[in-house]
What we know:
Elements: E1 8-34, E2 44-54, E3 58-63, E4 69-74, E5 81-97, H1 120-127, H2 137-149, H3 153-167, E6 169-170, H4 181-187, E7 189-190, H5 192-205, E8 209-217, E9 240-247, E10 251-256, E11 261-262, E12 267-273, E13 282-287, E14 293-304, E15 309-310
Parallel strand pairs: 6-7
Antiparallel strand pairs: 1-4, 1-5, 1-13, 1-14, 1-15, 2-5, 3-4, 8-9, 8-12, 9-10, 10-11
Helix pairs in contact: 2-3, 2-5, 3-5, 4-5
Amino acid sequence: MTASTPLVSTDLLHVRHVTQYRYAQPVKFGAHRAMFRPHDSNDLRLTAFEINTNPASAHHWVHDVFSNSKVIMDFDAAPESDTLEIVCEFNVVRSTVHEPKFPIAEFAQKYPFTYPSEQWPDLVALIRPEYDAPTGEVKRWAENFVDDAYGDSWAILENINSAIHRDFDYRRREEPGIQPPRETLAMGAGSCRDFAVLMLEAVRQLGFAARFATGYLYDPLTDQTDAEGHHAMRGAGATHAWVQVFMPGAGWIEFDPTNGLIASGQLIRTGVARLPAQAVPLEGSFTGAKGDFLGMDVSVEVASLAPTLSG
């Protein structure tokens, strides 16, 4: 890092997330649950938030088991309709620490290590693998990184994150659900959530505590007038998924295997969970025939509202 390179930069970002459901005939809508509100923290501060639906709905907020904020949209008083549009917009101040130093506890710098007894009860469910196949492809793949890292815990995590970004083909998928990690490994391709789950399972197979993270990705290229809709970041223009790994001394560290990012200021967290199914950005129901649902359209825009502040 040169003397002119900033240590910290701050961006004021605007997010607009539009979801439209289409039906063959008017239907009655049940409650819908959305995980759109960003996590307030030392590096992420919410300054404005608004959510609207058409037809109109009543809103109330809850915190789930992971303390994520969820808005419940009640359509009991709404008329039947052949479309449902949900529009969420918010502004956040997002800080980026360039070339961060992670104060990992000395005992955890060498692999393998054991989490302290006082942390173990809280982390055990996040260490246990969820997709362990009897044939063990993912575990064997993960163990290759242990051999290459010569017992360096950080190098294991960094190399898994980099390898997925480097060696796998990104394919955007609109359909719900994730590929089992062994399928992503076999295909060498997947979406951001598939890559996140592959890394999640791989590091858990090695004994690291990890959780699934969801939210949005800011791609600075979208603010360039000559970008013509292209993205430098894989996963921009939609909801995004990545991984958090807990390291003693340093706490939760974010890894985005889709883009090879670590603790990036381009990630805007809205939810964390043990499993992807517990961090669905939007879910709901309707009353009508199964064939009435025609499909949905999703649009996500993340843009800067002001020049980046550096210092």
